[in-house]
Amino acid sequence: MSPQAFLRRVGFVLFLAVVTAFWALPMLWLVTAPFDAHPGLTVRWPEWTLDNFRRLSESPYAFSSLRNSVLLAGGAMILVTVFGALAAYALSRVHVPGRGAILYGMLLLSSIVTGTAAMVPIFQLMFTLGLIDDRTGVILVLTGGLLPAAIFVLKDFMDATPRSYEESARVFGASPTQVLRHVVLPIARPGLATIAVWALVNAWGDFLTAYILLRDPTKTPAGVVMYTFYSEGGQANLPLISAFSVLYALPVVVLYIFVSRRYGFRFHGGIKS
Amino acid sequence: MTGVPLSSSPIPRRSILIGTVGMAAAALASCDKASSSTSSTSANATSRTVTLSIAANAISGGKSSKEADWFAKYVIPEFIKAQQAKGVTATVSFQPSGVDDEQYKSKLALDLKSKSGADIVSLDGIWVGEFAQAGYIKPLKDVVGSSVTSWEGWSQIPEAVQANAAFDGNTFGIPAGTDGRVLYFNKKLFAQAGLPANWQPTSWTDLISAGEKLATLSGVTPLQIDAGTAMGEATTMQGFLPLLVGAGQQIYANGKWQGNTQAVRDVLTFYQAILAKKLEDSTLQLAAKGRDESFGAFAQGKIGVLAEGDYFWRSVINPNGGDAPMATRDSDVGWAFIPAMAPGKGVGGADYASMSGGGGYFLNPSTPYPQQAWELLTFMSSKAAILARLDGAAQVTARKDVNSEVLSKDPLLSFVSQKVLPLTHYRPGLAVYPQVSLALQQATADVVSGKSPADAATAYQAALVKALGGADQVTTS
Amino acid sequence: MSDHAADAAGLGRPRAAAFMAPALLLITAFLVVPALWTLVLGATNYRLTGLAAANPQFVGTGNITEALSDPGFGWSLWLTLLFVLGSAIFGQSLAGLSLAWSLRSAPKVVKAVVETLVLMAWILPSSVVAFLWVAYLSRHGGTLNAILQTPGTDWLIQHPMASIIVFNIWRGTAFSMLLFSAALSAVPPSQMESARLAGAGTLAQLRDVVFPHIRGHVLTNTLLISLWTFNDFTPYLLTAGGPNHATEILPVFIYNRALYGGELGYGSAISFLMLIINLVIALFYVRLLRERR
C-alpha cells in the first residue's frame, strides 16, 4: 500500500472514529440512566436494576401509547409517501404554471402550522369538522403539515430519473400508471425511503397536535405520554423518562433498519449511462 | 365587537379590505360563540341517566398519579354507587392529561371556548380571573342556581382560600387545596456555622448575616432565593413576591400594579446584596435546569437556606419517593417564616410574609347536567372524598376539618396550615399576570447579570407599561 | 427547481391533476387554511384567555410594529441567522454529506452502527435529548469535562451559542445524511469508475462527477434544513434562551414575548415576520439555483 493510500486509510478510520465518538458520547446517559435505581442529571455508574421498566409496565398508558404512535406515525408516513410521490411525479413531468411559487409558498406556510401560534385555528377547524378525539384527524393534520417538504424533496428525485427509460417503456405499450409503478418508482426508491423515514420520525415525535386534538387516554401516542412523567411541581421523573425513551426510540430504529434493508437507500438496478 | 368602525359613506378600497380582514378575524376568533344556548340551571335535572366527565392535569403512572388514581378508584365508583341508590344510572369518566401546566391550560381554554370539554375541570387558582373574563367559566350561582350557597363545605373553607376560586365577587368552583412558602434550612450546616436550630430571621439583614456565617463553610452555598428567567414562575412565586410583600407592597392592589416603586427597588437591592456577597450561586440562576439542580444540592446538604413552597417538603425531599429524597429530612431540615424587610414592614404591618397558590375544581358552564355536576363536585369536595384522595399522605387541603385530622403528624405542614396561611397572600388572577411575572423575572435576571437595581427597576417599569399597554394602571414612587 | 421535464410517460394534464389532487386537498384543508387563519390572527390582539379572548380587537399592523421596535427582535434575528449558518448550512450539510460519502465504502457493521447512532440522535424526543446534553455539558460531573479534562467548565453558560450550534448539528445531521445517501446512490457508478481510472483524486471525483448529479439535492437540503433550524425551539430546553438572552433565537423569542402570556395575536404576528424572513432566505436559494444553471 502506498504511503498516500495508507495516510488516506488512516484519515478515513480517524474520521469514522471521531464521528462515532461525537454521536455516541452524549448518549451515554441513556445507557446508564434507564438501568439505574436513582439516576441523576449526570452520567454515573448505575445501581443496576430493571425496576424502571417494571414500573413503566404498571403505568396504564405507557405501552398502549407506543401502539398508538405506530398507528399515527405509520398512517402519516404512508399518506405522506404515497400522496407526496404522486404529486411530485405529476409536478415533475407536467408543466403547471406557477408550480414553483406554489410549492415554495406551501413550504413556508408549513413552518407556521407546526408552531404553537396555529393551535387555535387547527383546533377550531377540527372541531368544526367533528374530528376532535379522533386519531384520523391527527393523521390528517400531520400529513398536511409534512406534505410540502415531502413533495419538494421527492420532486428532485423524480426529476433525476432518466427520461429514456420512460420513453422505452411507452414504446413497449405501457400505460402512464404502469410507467410510474414499474419504471419511475423503483428508481426513485431511495428518495421514497428517505421521505418515509423522515415522515415517520416527525410524526412519531409530535406532541402538540396529538395533545390538542385527542381526549381519550387510550388513543394518546407516545410523543404525548413522554411528557407526563413529571411530578406536579415540574420535576422530571428520571427513572421513568429514561426507561421510556429507550422503548420510545426502539420501534423507529427497528423500522428504519427494516426500511433500509428492504427498500434500501441504494438503487441496485441496472443503469448503464 | 371589532375595533373597526363601519360607515355608510363611500369607502376607499383599502378600508374595505382592512375592514373585511378585521371582521373576518373577529368572526373567526369568536365564531364558536354564535351557536350557543345557555343551558338553564335545571336542564336534565330529573334525568334517569347521567353522563359526566372530569378533566384534571393528572395521569395514572405519570404526573399527579395519586389524583388520577383517586378518580378511577374512589370518586367514580362511589359516585356511581350513590346515584344507583337513587335509581339514576350514571356514567362518569376521567380525562387525564399530566403535561406541563401551560399546555394543559391551553387545551382547557380551547375546549371551554368551543363549549365542549369535561363537565368538571381542575383549574389553578390563578387562571380563574382570565378564564372568567374570557367567558370560559361562569359563577356557580349562574350555572347551578342559588342552592350552591347551602353546601355544608363552605363553612369549612377559610375565606382567603375561597377567594382562590373566585373573581370579581363571584365564586366559580370549590378550592381543593392551598400551600405556603417558607424558608427551609439545613440544621446540620447551621450547627457547623454557629447558627441556632430554631432559627427565625426577623429581617432581611438577619437573613444576610446568617448567609455570611454559612459562607465560612467550604463547599456550601449559603442561600438559594430563586432568581432569573430560567426558573420561570418559581422566581416570582418563591423569590420576588414574598420579598415584595415583606417590603410592604402587593404586586397588584386597588386596580394598580407595582411599577418602579420603592418596594420593588428594595427587593432588587436585596437580590443584589446576596449576589454581590456571593451568598447565592449566580450561575445556578442562569442554567436551564437550575431549579432542579438546587433541589439536588439542598438534598445533599450543599445549600444552607432555600425558599420554597411546602411541596418541596412533601414531594421533593420526601425520603419516601421524593424527586430528590433526603433520608435525614425529618431530623436535619428546619423551617422558618420568610421575614419582612424589617419587623412590621410587611403588608398590613406583618412581620413575616408568604405567598400561596392552589387550585380547585370548577364547573363547565356548558355542562348538560348542571345539577348532577354540582352533586359530583360537592361529593369530590366532601371530607370523606378528600381523605380518600390524600390516602394517608399529608397535604394542606382547603377544608379545616380535613387539615386538623391529617396534618397533625406532619410538623411542617401544620406550621404552614396554622401559622403561614393566616398571613399569606395570593397572586392576582388576571390575564396579563404571566407577562408581569416575566417582567419581574427579567428584573431579577438583570440584577444577576450585574445591572444596578435602579436600572433593573427602570427596565422593569418599561416592560410593565408595554405589557399593560399604558401607564395608567402602574404605580411608581 | 429543475426545469420542465418532458412528459415522457405521456401523463397528460388531466391525469397529472388527479395525481396531485389528494395531496393538494390535504394541504389546502389542513395546512393552508390554518396557516392563513393564524396570519389573520396576527392582525388582532387575540389572547387565549382574558378579555381579549372574548372580544379580540383588530390592531392591523400594530403587532408587527411592536415586534420590530422591540430591541430584542433584532438581536434575536441575528442570533438565529448565526445559528442557522453554523449548525445547518455548515454543520449538518457538510456532516451529512461527508458521512454519506464515507459510509459508502465503510464495512457493513460500521455503517450500521454509525447510521443508527446518528439516527437515534434525531429520533429521541426533545425532552430526553435535553437531559442527555445537560448531563453531557454539566459543570460538575459532565461527560465532556471528564473527557477533555476541563473540570468546572460550564459549557452552556460560558459558550452558549457554540454549545447549541454543536448540539443542533448532533441532533439534525441524520436528515442530511439520509438524503445525501439516497442522492449519491443515483450517481452512475460507471462515471465514478471512469473518473477513478483516469486518476482523479477524491476531491476531483466529488467536484466533477458527483456534484453535478446532486447539485439540486444539495440546494433542496440546505433550504429545508435552514427553514427547519430557523424555526427550531429545542435549544430552549438547554439554555432557556440564556444566559441573559445569549441564545434567545427567534422561536424562543416568540415563546418568551408572546406565547408565555397567551398572546396568540402577537405570537402570530411574529410568526408572520419569521415567514417573511424565511421567504427572503428561500428566494436567496432560488437565485443561487438559477445562477448555477
UniProtKB/TrEMBL annotation, chain A:
GO terms for cellular component: plasma membrane. It is found in: Cell membrane. It comes from Candidatus Phosphoribacter hodrii. Pfam families: BPD_transp_1. Coiled coil: none annotated. This is Carbohydrate ABC transporter permease. Belongs to the binding-protein-dependent transport system permease family. InterPro entries: BP-dep_ABC_trans_perm, MetI-like, MetI-like_sf. CDD domains: TM_PBP2 (cd06261). One of its GO terms (biological process) is transmembrane transport. Residues 66-259 form the ABC transmembrane type-1 domain. The chain crosses the membrane at residues 12-31, 70-91, 103-124, 136-154, 191-214, 234-259. Keywords: Cell membrane, Membrane, Transmembrane, Transmembrane helix, Transport. It is a multi-pass membrane protein. The keyword Transferase does not apply.
